[in-house]
Design goal:
alpha/beta, five-stranded mixed beta sheet, binds zinc ion
């Protein structure tokens, strides 16, 4: 195997191929970081001395039907400039203690829209939890850096999850969730205020329920935005007022009017309009 093949099939640009073993239905490939790339992780100096060597098994993308494991040489280095005594950086893995390559991460994310977690885990020789963890980290990273620059119309609503309330901010044009805060009211939007300030976006309108807490928040933090009350909450309010009027009218009506009104239903807006016409 050449260094070029390592790079093009496994994404290992910084490594030198040493040897290969075939055993237990696996391909074991011995590699080490190219010596001219070794440097101090603290100051970046290449003036370093070797202290200790160990080997770590790193899972790579399968070759055909064979699982591929890289036997990676990892060196501890002493810096002759700053005195640091630390393990070399491992650029081929996504985090310091990971046992799989960045190429595996990319492959998991490419396969997941087409295959179940179990199928991806079986195909790549990974544990089910590892695949789940890779996907979870990707989603957390993706949604923690949502750009607000072009957002113009937002909606704020609260939701009861069973454990308590959460407050959700959405971009009403794209449908994207921009922020999820614990609890309800203005305090649940503190994180969103920080995002707003750093983005310098120009929010033109904000849709709210009828609660005073969010209106006060919008007037304070989005003074130039038009406040629009969610039609769902307005219809709900109108319905409760109309029902109160119906009960009062029934109470005041004579027997003949009561008989006429009882035949009317109140389930739809059309029925309510009919009922209103009857009363008036
Ligand atoms: Zn150093």
């Amino acid at each position: 195997m050449s260094n070029s093949l390592l790079y093009h099939t496994q994404g290992l640009r910084e490594y030198k191929y040493l040897s290969t073993e075939y055993a237990d239905s696996k391909v074991r490939i011995y590699i080490e970081q190219k010596e001219d790339l070794l440097k101090c992780v603290d100051c970046g100096s290449h003036n370093v001395s070797l202290v200790k060597i160990k080997t770590r098994e790193i899972k790579g993308v399968p070759m055909g039907t064979k699982q591929t494991v890289f036997m990676l040489t990892i060196r501890r280095l002493r810096c002759n400039d700053c005195g640091a005594d630390k393990q070399e950086a491992i650029p081929c893995i996504p985090s310091e203690k990971a046992r799989y390559t960045k190429a595996i991460v990319r492959t998991v994310l490419e396969l997941r829209p087409k295959m179940s977690i179990t199928d991806v885990a079986d195909f790549l020789g990974l544990h089910w939890g590892t695949v789940k963890d890779i996907e979870k980290k990707y989603l957390q990273k993706k949604f923690s850096k949502i750009k607000l620059k072009h957002v113009k119309i937002i909606g704020i609503d609260e939701l009861h999850t069973g454990d308590g309330f959460i407050t959700i901010v959405r971009d009403l044009e794209s449908g994207s969730v921009l922020h999820v805060g614990e609890g309800k009211g203005g305090n649940a939007l503190d994180g969103f205020v920080r995002k707003l300030r750093s983005s310098k976006c120009k929010i033109k309108a904000v849709s709210l329920d009828l609660g005073p807490a969010y209106s006060a928040w919008a007037e304070k933090y989005l003074p130039e935005a038009r406040i629009v009350y969610d039609h769902f909450h307005l219809i709900k309010l109108m319905n409760s007022k109309l029902d109160a009027l119906r009960r009062k009218t029934m109470g005041d009506a004579d027997e003949e009017m009561k008989k006429r009104l009882k035949k009317k239903d109140f389930c739809s807006s059309k029925m309510k309009k009919t009922w209103m016409m009857t009363v008036l």
